[in-house]
Specification:
By secondary structure, the chain is mainly alpha-helical. The chain contains two helices and no strands.
Length: about 140
């Protein structure tokens, strides 16, 4: 029985040493793989940094483009508003001139009509006066 215990301890020690050696070998293998991949493939953190830089650069370009587009739209709106105001002022001044000319012509017509009516009334009065005078003389 003592022999079996010694054999069992020895087997357990061999298993523990083998496990430690396998663990050490796997660590060395992982370190070796990591060193070699760093030569060919950049670390993930560098990829993420490049990716984020690309995303932010793209976002800056989009925002700059949108700023230019909105600026052009606002300039166009301002220019069209200015043109519309000028056209409105010109139309108003033309209409004002036409109305003034129409009023002047209408005033002249009314004045001419009043004069003609006055002449007719004057002529009618003269004729009536002549008739009355002729009747009185007769």
């Amino acid at each position: 029985m003592a022999k079996t215990r010694d054999v069992r301890k020895r087997v357990e020690q061999l298993i523990e040493r083998a496990q430690a050696d396998i663990l050490e070998a796997s660590h060395q293998l992982a370190d070796g793989i990591a060193k070699e991949t760093d030569r060919f493939v950049p670390p993930v953190s560098q990829d993420i940094e490049r990716l984020l830089d690309g995303v932010f650069d793209f976002t800056e370009r989009v925002v700059t483009g949108q700023r230019k587009m909105v600026s052009e739209v606002v300039k166009s709106i301002n220019e069209q508003s200015r043109r519309a105001a000028e056209v409105g002022q010109q139309a108003t001044s033309r209409t004002t001139k036409r109305v003034a000319a129409t009023k002047t012509a209408a005033t002249k017509r009314v004045g001419a009509t009043k004069k003609a009516a006055t002449k007719r009334v004057g002529a009618t009065k003269k004729a009536a006066t002549k008739r009355v005078s002729a009747t009185k003389k007769a």
